[in-house]
Amino acid sequence: MPRHERSFTLVALLVLGAISVVSAEQGSPQVAQVTKALQGKWEGVGAEAGWSMSFEGETWYAASGKQWYSGDFVLHPDQKPAGIDLIIRDCAGCNFLDRKSLAIFELDGDSLKVAGPEPGKPRAKRFEDDSNQLLRMTRAQ
Fold this sequence. Notes:
This protein is an alpha+beta fold. The protein contains two helices and eight strands.
């Protein structure tokens, strides 16, 4: 699988054009609190330094070079580790339209870590796993 499609899985994480928060827990204070904490611009660090993303309201956009992704997401902050479902609605030349990546995330102040498999695979269980793409981000200044 090309690296850009592997990176997408994570990026689609947090990692898109217009993402609407949709969740059975949508009205829960915990989901609202995490959604609020994600707001703003994020930049990739380390191997994913070329990635950037932003959360504004209930939308999310992620891009690296000519690659970009957008869609809906569902937060599962009560899971251990916390889960995020990324439903891809639009992207630049990818094969993931209307597919879901079942990722995990960790938000710690100005640091965000997301790990996920390609769409259609089981939810990630650990951040350090060769079958998942790991994306580390920091809040842009």
